[in-house]
Specification:
The chain contains 16 helices and two strands. By secondary structure, the chain is mainly α. Strands 1-2 form a two-stranded antiparallel sheet.
Length: about 350
């Protein structure tokens, strides 16, 4: 994992700096936007999606790993673009413990405008443009790679499919905040917003680049769906109980914005009529205050919802392991896949 992390990070920064120089020649402010994007790429990130892409490629018999690094990096740029847009929707200005693009521009624009509402609005606009550029760069990186034309078409098709489906999840997630907690389709949101582009997409794309058969791609699809759903459930728990020093994001943010997560639905169904009524009231008036957040955290524990989500994560672990059995992996390669399962489902950041 660390080898891929360093390799992909170095490749991304080289690309980003070249784009910054190119943008600078058009307009200094455009170069500044790319500088902010480079800063975001250096801020952190596990490079999980590029790792999964390369792991699936090599596990399926791919031999030209060096040629695949740009295609793997494209999945990280897709991720960066989606996060930039997601942070705008969630009104987040911090990522990996430091300002994201919107956060950087809020500071910059506050010096140019005495109207806080205006400076925040234009900072969100800069973040929106950065997200567009990241998504465009993902396509550009594939086109610039040295893989065959047929592989470029296939890689682009996989990235486009993932983007198409994750936007469905993003829309459902955004609209869910306006719906009663019990009616939101939290499982579809988790599958579309997280699993299909964080796990299924890069895994199936990597195998496809190695010309893997339908049986292998189907097993990876099942593995990615199980691991991806478990990944999102762990993310829900970290969003409430995580350590800021490790996650880089403020804990309880999901509670303050009353996100319609599977964790909150589990809490609602396991609670008393009185507690359900209070949850419903809180869900109608985000963001909620610190005392209500503290009450919700306690209720999640007391109702048994946290334990129930842990049990679901364990179930997804078994589903992922069963899918691995169909891949017929060597012992050494299977060890790498087992690490993916443990990391995705039981990480602390």
């Amino acid at each position: 994992m660390l080898v891929v992390q360093h390799e992909v990070t170095a490749f991304l920064l080289q690309y980003c700096q070249a784009q910054q120089e190119r943008a600078q020649r058009l307009a200094p402010s455009y170069g500044r936007l790319w500088a902010a994007m480079c800063d975001v790429l250096q801020a952190g990130g596990k490079r999980l999606r590029p790792y999964l892409f390369l792991l699936a490629y090599e596990s399926a018999g791919g031999k030209n790993r060096a040629d695949m690094v740009p295609v793997a990096a494209a999945w990280e740029l897709l991720h960066a673009g989606l996060l930039a847009h997601d942070d705008i929707i969630d009104r987040d200005y911090v990522r990996h413990g430091r300002p994201n693009v919107g956060g950087l521009y809020r500071t910059d624009y506050a010096k140019l405008s005495h109207n806080e509402e205006d400076s925040t609005h234009f900072a969100d606009g800069a973040a929106l443009l950065a997200g567009d550029l990241f998504l465009n760069a993902a396509q550009h990186m594939i086109l610039q790679s040295s893989v065959s034309d047929a592989q470029k078409v296939a890689a682009t098709r996989h990235v486009n499919k993932a983007m198409y489906e994750v936007i469905a999840g993003e829309l459902l997630d955004m609209e869910a905040v306006m719906l009663p907690l019990e009616t939101a389709d939290a499982r579809s949101i988790a599958l579309l917003k997280t699993a299909v582009y964080s796990m299924v997409g890069p895994l199936v794309a990597g195998a496809d680049m190695a010309a893997a058969g339908a049986e292998t791609r189907h097993a990876l699809d099942r593995f990615g769906a199980a691991a991806g759903l478990g990944y999102q459930l762990r993310d829900d728990l970290l969003g409430v109980f995580g350590d800021y020093k490790k996650t880089g994001k403020t804990a309880v943010g999901d509670l303050q914005e009353v996100k319609r997560t599977l964790l909150m639905q589990e809490t609602f169904h396991a609670s008393s009529v009185k507690d359900r009524a209070r949850i419903t009231k809180l869900m109608s008036e985000p963001p909620i205050g610190e005392s209500d957040v503290a009450w919700l955290k306690e209720l999640i524990e007391k109702s048994g919802a946290r334990a129930a989500i842990e049990a679901q994560i364990a179930d997804f672990e078994q589903r992922a392991l069963h899918a691995l059995d169909d891949l017929r992996l060597s012992a050494s390669t299977r060890t790498k896949w087992l690490w993916v399962v443990r990391y995705a489902l039981y990480r602390d950041h």
